[in-house]
Amino acid sequence: xxxxxxxxxxxxxxxxxxxxxxxxxxxxxxxxxxxxxxxxxxxxxxxxxxxxxxxxxxxxxxxxxxxxxxxxxxxxxxxxxxxxxxxxxxxxxxxxxxxxxxxxxxxxxxxxxxxxxxxxxxxxxxxxxxxxxxxxxxxxxxxxxxxxxxxxxxxxxxxxxxxxxxxxxxxxxxxxxxxxxxxxxxxxxxxxxxxxxxxxxxxxxxxxxxxxxxxxxxxxxxxxxxxxxxxxxxxxxxxxxx
Length: 242
Ligand code: F6R
Description:
By secondary structure, this protein is α/β, with parallel strands linked by helices. Helix content is about 30%, strand content about 20%. It has seven helices and ten strands.
């Protein structure tokens, strides 16, 4: 895994946006794997601004998000469907039916996981996957202990993840207990991966990631086995390195 150190959050966003625009502006069909949460917000707002100012088109871009909560309607403000719609989808010209997130409201969640995995394969796989890192080292919602051979599946969220995501909900009790996530193997099939680390609350896990062996107890460590994985980390997130 390559490491790009950047000064601050602006530099992180600009680095990732340049990589995404390279692909999008090539005019070739591209499948992007997308993340939600705080880290990519500035990336999406810059892409929206670029499309407004420069007219960049997303007609040949298809997207697959990493995850969605179980039991939240796509219209719920805390859902990842809603997040993506507001942050990116409604502002640029993706093809109709070109944006995908797992459906966490369906009666048959196992079937939904199979369908999501099959849709990624049918689309030709993910060209460029964006990832944030959880304070416990998760990628997507693959919590510590998840098998590296996992495919899209239903997960029970770790308490540390529910705590970290409390800030997006009115009340701690409303944070869902389960989610659908791409599996570790699904993520590893991506042709290129960017792991973004922003802020001092990630310093401890980033230090562990860089110092420790690859292990299922630290899901993000699997990226050290990927031939085209890059971590882009701000100085604050690297502060735990001695
Ligand atoms: C979000 C996701 C998560 C987040 C991670 C970091 O779709 O899959 O793995 O990327 O929890 O979240 P932030 O960026 O809010 O610190």
